[in-house]
Amino acid sequence: MDDFHKTRRLPPYVFEQVNRLKAKARAGGADIIDMGMGNPDLPTPKHIVEKLTETVQNPRTHRYSASKGIPGLRRAQAAYYGRRFGVKLDPETQVVATLGSKEGFANMAQAITAPGDVVLVPNPSYPIHAFGFLMAGGALRSIPAEPGPEVFEALERAVIHSIPKPIAVVLCYPANPTAYCADLEFYRDVVAFARKHEIFVLSDLAYSEIYFGDTPPPSILQVPGAMDVAVEFTSLSKTFSMPGWRMGFAVGNERLIGALARVKSYLDYGAFTPIQVAASAALNGPEDCIVEMRETYRKRRDVLVDAFARAGWAIPAPEASMFAWAPIPEQFQKFGSLEFSKLLIEKADLAVAPGIGFGEHGEGFVRIGLVENEQRIRQAARNLRRFFETSSIGHNSGTE
């Protein structure tokens, strides 16, 4: 049976091949160290869980909630932006709660995209950045993922040569999967370009609180004039280790926020009210849990880079995010990222995400999530070392 129109536009889900192999290995008794999915393993802070359990006792909170987010939650998000970025937001018109940033992106695409509209998306990039617009009937043009002059050269070419003119550009810093970071000067140039050419900017800031240097990642909304063109998506999944709670936000340009809120009003009633109340407690509460989370990821990053280097795999240390973007070791490059990822499951009991799953320019890399503890990361390195030292796969036609 043929696929439906919208599903036909989606490429095969590369990660599913890795997931199937991972499940098969586990069923066979293998202890797979899973660093493939960006699924935080740290517990949600106690005060947030306690607020959820307290609120859920009230039967009135079991009714339909508010699609755009309860007022207290939108105020809490606005207050967070004020403290963290010095950005003033109107909770009524410039803040919408989403079911995670992924849902926010997908429904923003539905809200603003007409069939054939061109959207500029980094390559490699988190899949929803591209596929949300494909499902909405849009067309994609790739821009470089690394912030720098090449991005603006690509933007200029897109404006000149795209018919119709692009409606929006997607950004994501700290980046998933590459861990690239952008500074405020880069955002200033993006905002100036977007205002000049009347293009919207959709910024994904899901990893804003996972950084390892002294300079916190900025928000594009810190740039004067950014509110004219930009919306930013954030998530509590990583900041407060709340991935399964599905709580995120879109904030910024009133026209875009209004369009998203209108689409969502037809599609959902918002997250369960106790979850929204608990999310408010997270945003309004103590931040020591964020500092502890950040330090945990920093230690894991350091162990990963050191232990994997000792095993024979040199990986650049990411400055931010919960991922390392790792070039495939030279002796295995001929296999490509998908086959190399399969090899790691079969020969090293290690699951990673193949770079090709993030776009064609992700080929040659794999994404490694900092989602296992330090002991497990060291075990992964020992598995790798054994594989690298005993394998002849990387040096001959492919048999061992």
Describe the structure.
This protein is an alpha/beta fold and 400 residues long. Helix content is 44%, strand content 13%. It is built from 14 helices and twelve strands. The chain has helices at residues 5-8, 14-27, 46-56, 71-85, 100-112, 127-135, 149-161, 184-197, 236-239, 254-267, 273-284, 288-311, 336-348, 374-390, and strands at residues 33-34, 95-98, 118-123, 139-144, 168-172, 200-204, 230-235, 248-252, 323-327, 350-351, 353-354, 365-369. The strands form three sheets. It has a seven-stranded mixed sheet, with helices on both faces. Strand 3, helix 6 and strand 4 form a beta-alpha-beta unit. Helix 12 packs parallel to helix 14. The radius of gyration is 21 Å and the shape is globular. It starts with a helix and ends in a 10-residue tail after the last helix. Residues 396-400 have low confidence and may be disordered.
Task: Label this structure with key terms.
400 residues; alpha/beta; seven-stranded mixed sheet; three-stranded antiparallel sheet; 14 helices
Topology:
Blueprint: H1 5-8, H2 14-27, E1 33-34, H3 46-56, H4 71-85, E2 95-98, H5 100-112, E3 118-123, H6 127-135, E4 139-144, H7 149-161, E5 168-172, H8 184-197, E6 200-204, E7 230-235, H9 236-239, E8 248-252, H10 254-267, H11 273-284, H12 288-311, E9 323-327, H13 336-348, E10 350-351, E11 353-354, E12 365-369, H14 374-390
Parallel strand pairs: 1-10, 3-4, 3-5, 5-6, 6-7
Antiparallel strand pairs: 2-8, 7-8, 9-12, 11-12
Helix pairs in contact: 2-13, 3-11, 4-11, 5-6, 5-10, 12-14
